[in-house]
Amino acid sequence: MRKKLLQTGADELTYEIRGIVKKAEQLKKLGRKIQWENIGDPVQKGAKLPSWIKDTISELAQQDDSYSYCHSKGVLETRQFLAKKNNAMGGVQITEDDILFFNGLGDAIAKIYQYLVPPARIIGPSPAYSTHSSAEAAHANDHPITYNLDPQNNWLPDMDDLYNKVKFNPNIVGILIINPDNPTGMVYPLEILKRFVAIAKEFDLLLISDEIYINVTYNGARAYSLGQYIEDVPGIALKGLSKEVPWPGSRCGWAKFYNRKNSSEFDKLCTTLENAKMIEVCSTKLPQLAIPRIMGDARYQDHLRSNNEKIGRRSKLITDILIKCDGIYFNPTSGAFYNTIVFKENVINNKQTLKIDEPEIKKMVEDWVSQPEVLPDKRFVYYLLAAKGICVVPISSFCSDLRGFRVTLLEDNEETLVSTFTGISEAIKEYIGS
Predict the structure, then answer these.
(1) Fewer CB under 10 Å: which end of the chain, C or N?
(2) What is the pTM of this model?
(3) Cis amide linkage into residue 50, ω under 30° from 0
């Protein structure tokens, strides 16, 4: 072309969670049965919405008003409902004007980073959820800036690493927290969250908290929402319907703005996000209308509790299987529905294999791993897919120097769950020993 079309950060716009599907589909055509452990879609994995939620949505779909535009910031009654729920938790109080709806959190994330000035950076956790790290890198025309989560310390953040990176990089204007965390399943303790606030105060930063899994906790864990601990620091909490209802196809997410008037620069960012949504007219209306009816129903808490108990049991079953594996760092999860398994240092390399009996499948995976850009953990993931038909995601694709893979905790059939993770355990042992 006459001119360079793409900026440097555009190279970061990858999404291996979906990309690995292309490989799996090739194997599927050759007859390999696939067990999908790559994407956090509870419905795809067999989750059933209770009939009362379906009936609620069906009733709304019969109303003519459901098909019209709504206020550009979102349905007023729904924003009032969500503000009231926020305020009942204590902490920073907000009004309906502090809530802005988007077409899913992907839309919200893209817009937040899009309207920051190019030098401004948001530092986020590593391993990183790729929607955040890719959007931040594309905005900044550079690689993501991250702080480390430590697999040898229950995936808690290295706060000294975070502090030093903030201190010596004046372009950092904000800190991203994903709580509960994707991809590790870690839930931040309150004392760690307060340290984020202290750093934000010291360096005059904003905080962004992705809370899509805030109501997905189990086995005794509790997740704290941003408004409960942020004090007077400006911040944005991101929430949505996709994971907890679950209703991923709703593409309905919202941002809550905290302490907007405490910073003129932050207030300008919030106003810009509102104006950007106004240009689009509004976000999808039907799921917004459903929120007060679903979340305000007395049955909703029981629905969440039941789902979380199931995920917690799966977490324990997976722990019983994988905790016995040598050569990996394994941490039981307490939030979200993922676990990240990391190989210990120098355990995997570019020569190890798994036994594959089918010549055509064997040739295909050997072609994949022969490519120069295939890192050791992606090599393992490809062999696992070809040999066992288990589709997971390499952790190197989550903006991490660690080598491992992410799995989901969504398989509802207990027999299938045990079989799948027994297969993963067997594959780890065979691969390391090969």
Answers:
(1) N
(2) 0.93
(3) no
> Secondary structure of the chain in the HEC alphabet?
CCCCCCCHHHHHCCCHHHHHHHHHHHHHHCCCCCEECCCCCCCCCCCCCCHHHHHHHHHHHCCHHHHCCCCCCCCHHHHHHHHHHHHHCCCCCCCHHHEEEECCHHHHHHHHHHCCCCCCEEEEEECCCHHHHHHHHHHHCCCCCEEEEEHHHCCEECHHHHHHHHHCCCCEEEEEEECCCCCCCCCCCHHHHHHHHHHHHHHCCEEEEECCCCCCECCCCCCCCHHHHCCCCCEEEEEECCCCCCCHHHCCEEEEEECHHHCHHHHHHHHHHHHHHHHHCCCCCHHHHHHHHHHCCCCHHHHHHHHHHHHHHHHHHHHHHHCCCCCEECCCCCECCEEEEEECCCCCCCCCCCCCCCHHHHHHHHHHHCCCCCCHHHHHHHHHHHHHCEECEEHHHHCCCCCEEEEECCCCCHHHHHHHHHHHHHHHHHHHHC
Residue-level length of the chain: 434
Tokens in use for 119? Answer: 């030098």
Both structure tokens of 294? 């679903």
CA 285 to chain CA mean position, Å:
24
CATH topology of domain 51-295: Aspartate Aminotransferase; domain 2 (3.40.640)
Q: How many CB atoms lie within 10 A of CB 249?
A: 12
CATH number of 8-47+301-433: 3.90.1150.10
Amino acid 434: pLDDT: 73
pLDDT for residue 139: 87
What pLDDT digit, counting tens, does each position of 227-248 carry? 999 999 999 999 999 999 999 9
**How confident is the model at residue 13, as a pLDDT?**
46
- Check: CB of residue 389 under 8 Å from CB of residue 405: no
Cβ–Cβ contacts within 10 Å for residue 303, how many? 18
pLDDT of residue 194: 98
Radius of gyration in angstroms for the set of CA atoms belonging to the chain, rounded to a whole number: 22
Q: Which residues of the chain have pLDDT under 70?
A: 1-18
Q: What are the structural domain ranges in the chain? A: 8-47+301-433, 51-295
